[in-house]
Amino acid sequence: MLSQAELKGIYVPVVTPFLSDGELDLVSYERYVKHLLEFEIDGLVVGGTTGESPTISWEEVVELVSITRDALGTRSVPIVVGTGTNNTADTVRRTEMAGRIGADAALVVTPYYSRPSEAGILEHYRRASRTGVPVIAYEIPSRTGIRLSAETMRAILELDGVIGLKDSSGSLTLLQELGSFATKPVLCGDDALLYDMLRLGASGGISASANVCTRNFIEVCRQAAAGNYPAASRVFDGLRPLIDDLFREPNPAPLKWLLARQDLLAADAVRLPMSQITSALQQRLSRYLVE
Asked: Which residues, including other chains, have CB under 8 Å from residue 270's CB and lie 6 or more apart?
């Protein structure tokens, strides 16, 4: 199981490859994961937003985790599985199942759509944290429709089974408000804010863009961890255009297009309601194929 001390560096959230008929492309997935493992990444996230979690079944998550574990072999790269839903009982059940299939931690998003009270959200996390599987809280107001106060997030981080936070709140405010209280690690979930969050004390990032130019994202975190922020800034400045382009249209469609053109995926297929990217964005992304 993942400890809070290990929650640092670059965690790569994986895409879920599909064939043209919409079925899982497990052959591509194995090739793609083995490619990521050529780099010194600090963890993999399966079944997260980048993996199109709203449209993949739990049975498919189980298949993906099994292949990921096989690809790891003897390597000790943590596997984090997305288990959060807007149903507490289902979240607890999925988190327990994630532990049984070999997840090292669970990524549990703030309950979405129903817009519960902060007291209800705290209880949601309390119950997930009692499963025995380490929980990484995931705050992303742009998708959940609710923004947690720093006070509630502090209370969530105080729970024994919660080992840290993925902060995709869209600004530096939450991290700043947590301040010195944030003794548990905070991972940046907004790729464009990675460098700024590292400067404020974040321990790393769960970065979709790190599927591309992976080595450079790792270097940003390494330089920041060493206190060499000018060097981290120089490397990160070179990544900004890529990050901007990968999020011009909904993630992970741009990323899948690029991975397919790099022959890591057989196709850039996504499941509806996601759609493939426009020709204009294809032209922009093409420049990364020759660099």
From this structure: 18, 52, 252, 253, 256, 276
Tens digits of per-residue pLDDT, 159-204? 999 999 999 999 999 999 998 666 799 999 999 999 999 999 999 9
State the burial class of residue 237 (Cβ atoms within 10 Å of its Cβ: 0-12, 13-18, 19+): exposed
pLDDT, one tens digit per residue, over 22-58 is 999 999 999 999 999 999 999 999 999 999 999 999 9
Task: Please identify which of the residues 11, 125, 138, 195 carries the catalytic annotation.
Answer: 138
| Set 29, 125, 166, 184: catalytic member | 166
For residue 131, the 8-state DSSP code is T
Q: How many Å apart are CA 164 and CA 203, to the nearest integer? A: 10
- DSSP secondary structure code for residue 192 in this structure: G
d(CA 180, CA 189): 20
* DSSP structure string for 231-284: HHHHHHHHHHHHHHHHTSSSTTHHHHHHHHHTTSSS-----TT--PPPHHHHHH
Give yes or no: 32 in active site: no
Q: What is the CA radius of gyration of the chain?
A: 18
Examine the residue annotation and report whether 166 is marked as an active-site residue of this protein. yes
